[in-house]
Amino acid sequence: MEELLKELSKRAEEEILKAKSLQEIESLRVKYLGKKGELTQILRGMGSLSPEERPVIGQLANDVREKIENMILERREKIAKEEKERKIKEEYIDITMPGKPYKYGHKHPITLVMDEIKRIFLGLGFSIAEGPEVELAYYNFEALNTPEDHPARDLQDTFYITSDILLRTQTSPVQVRTMEKTKPPIRVISPGRVYRSDDIDATHSPVFHQMEGLVVDEGITMGDLKGVLNVFAKKFFGESTRTKFRPHFFPFTEPSAEMDVSCFACGGKGCRVCGYTGWIEILGAGMVHPNVLRMSGIDPEKYTGFAFGLGIDRIAMLKYGIEDLRLLFENDMRFIEQF
Fold first, then answer.
1. Could you tell me which residues are beta bridge partners of residue 304?
2. What is the pLDDT of residue 112?
3. Portion of the chain with pLDDT greater than 90, in percent
4. What family does the entry list (predicted)?
């Protein structure tokens, strides 16, 4: 048995030194030291030894086991170190090479236009007011002097959630909520998304963007409205821009008007952009109706105000020469990166 143990030790040493991978080392450990390994098989024959031989063979077996364990440990550490060095060499990074550039996001044309309009009105002393997109019918219609039989309240024009809750069709409800919470003087703009039941085509979308403006104070006149909007038009479209107002009707303003600006593409001479009229309609406006002031808790005998609403999407299309509204909602980076 002594000869068997010595032969086992010699054979294990040779195989361990030849091992090239951690998997081979683990296989040799199981082969020689496992529960069914060769060393265990030899030790099962100790029962046939004499009492004098057992301590000697037992000590020799322990020495062989310890030797094999130490050799496996040393070889495992050496192979692990060699594999690490190999990986480092194979995965070498040349730190002098330029790094991979990160692709940054890009502002959407609607966001660019909205930010520019905000800057203009903030510079005129306005502040920003916000309101819910899921709105009560009261704020979207009744508080804005829109009676129940008005066509704007029809199911084919409005996304109703219940008979009293809907997706707002305009940002005008924000002006009512602002007047309820704030005492005059009031000077706010309220940009945001609005929803109407429209078919999707080159000029219509069920989701689009508006910006409402509201001023309420003592002595506010139509002249103040025209002055503010004239400054806005010149700041946004250029100092040579001219404006004109045409009579119109809105339930929540009286008198009401639509404002045109001289075509920024042709300077008012007439071109395809302006339909060869020299003018482009950009917003609706008017003096806040006394009924709206009254329902919002403001005395129309003491205070007057004006309001205006403009379509952000339409202005973005005009500013950047976009002919199809659907391009603004497809999120194609090839399109967005042009602006």
1. 217
2. 94
3. 46
4. Belongs to the class-II aminoacyl-tRNA synthetase family. Phe-tRNA synthetase alpha subunit type 1 subfamily.
